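Hi C.,

You asked whether I'd gotten around to modeling the 654-residue construct. I have! Everything is below, sequence then structure, no commentary in between.
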Amino acid sequence: MNRLVSFLALLLLVPLASAHAATAKARPLVSPIFSDNMVLQRGKPNTFWGWAKPGQSVRVTISGKSAVGTAGADHLWQVKLLPPAVGGPYTVTISGPETVVLHNVLVGDVWLCGGQSNMQLGLGETLNAAAEIRAANHPGIRLFTVANHVSYGRGTAVSGTWKVCSPTTITKDGWGGFSAVAYYFGLKLHRDLKVPIGLIQDCVGGTPVESWMSPSSLRKAGGYSARLDEMDRFRKEGLPEYGSSLMHWLDRYDTGAAGATWGAPALDDHDWKPVTLAHAFDELGLGDEPGVAWFRLHVSLPNPLPAGPTTIRLGVVDKMDTVYVNDHWTGASSWVENPRVYPIGAGVLHPGDNLIAIRIFKLKGPGFRQPDQVRLVLGNGTSMPLAGPWRGRLSVDARPPHPLPLDFENFPTMPAVLFQGMIEPLAPLAISGAIWYQGESNADQASRYRSLLTAMIGDWRTVFEQGNFPFYIVSLPAFMHRSATPTDDGWTDIREAQAQVAATVPNSALAVTVDTGEADNIHPKLKQPVGDRLALCALAHYYKLPVVCSGPVFASLEHQPGALRLRFTHANGGLVVHGQTLGEFSVAGSDRVWHWATAKIDGDCVIVSSPEVHDPVAARYAWQANPEATLFNGAGLPAVPFRTDTWPEATGAK
């Protein structure tokens, strides 16, 4: 499941930057989180900071008020200053060894927007994108995208700049532009509250919750010491900050990537073995064992080359591929189920002879799962099968006792690396709170996710030094194909964990999205309800407005002859059915065998029964990855998926 839901297709076209590389230069007088067009948090002191020589003084002035700070031995200076009245624009002047002036600054509310790819998905990739982008002209909404950074120690400064929300800026960077979920969240707040809203997008696709946690919390949780010790060793050795053990392992053992790489067209490969991609590792003598091999193929292209972008397609590969075209890095992925499609950069190909080199790291299996799919697709749509014959050479025989990496991804899944690279450098920026859309990458460890997410919220609140600020969680939408029989899976367990965290962690809430989603798309395009429901959580809990922010929540169970009566809270406006039938409920007897149930609404209760279960003892609702979830309240919000039993969950044994 974890591999299934990892998001890599975009990330692996451009490797993540290292926080070390970003901060190795002289640290700026003012942290980059402070720039033109920013929003300062209303109603609380705002901490400004930056770096100067020890002992140097820095003054921050806004609207006639000023405060002075002095750089300490670590070069860090900080100044706390209450902002002026809500609105603006204001000018902020920061003077010290040099003077920095911030223009067009507003005062309102600032929200941190974190998670993985569904938080990252930009407005341009979502439903009704063209119309929404045309309408995205909101000078009172400001956008900041934290550039992706990995850090093996506490990072210093983030990269990015504040932008005024407009049709141009909302789509300027990233995967479809600025986060659609964050945008819809901020848009509803802005319209309902009539105050400026600052949104900070701080997310990386495919990443697990432990990448966003502090090392100290992870060591307390247990099970992460080996990887944290490895990260510390990488830092002490001054190695590149990949955020992935596999990349360091390849650097150490893959001789094909050292010096003049095996992807160079001029390399003499006459002593390499001719291989077929379908049986390449068998033909190289590795069989079903782990290792790394390189494969090379010369391809003749027409003159002139067809206009338009050319892609190379590999089908599905197990485990990780890295593609070089004429010795230019073209793409890489470790997401096994993701068919590889990599664009080849302009100017890389030329008429006549071209060299394609593919490095494969595999654990078991053939490496190439779909060798007949390996091909070039030229700019005019012409498909050129790359059947070979290829030439191959083994680079790493990783059969025991050869060591293997501690993890097998080539993107930042190492614990703590994003907390250190992308969260700590933002603190202690004054904010209202945070919204969080993540969980797909932890769907095989839901029982552990409860404690990890709880600890992560604590980490964020500690580092920002603003108490138990609001933290609102997206409950995962529907995904994968619907099961015809009652079942459970990693997504049901993750939803339950998210609901439990929202119910037990102070000042937290849950935005249920089980009525949205797409069976075959882990990045569903309907994002407005997600942002709107997160905004309802904020409006109800943080802003204390009289709005409904939750659908029906299971409260209690009453046994009746041959049936169960399920009572709900948050049935605002009454329980209602959205759709043809009320579903999806199941019941089980003491044998713990689940059967679909017939359900009917009775006031603020639902009565469930099944002719196959004479004495039901437990019930479940919307308890699969893609359920038929049709129970709502009169306010139009979906019921929270639930179960009344405490029997072992699908992922409990992992």
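If it helps when you're writing up: Residues 446-464 form the longest helix (19 residues).

Thanks,
B.
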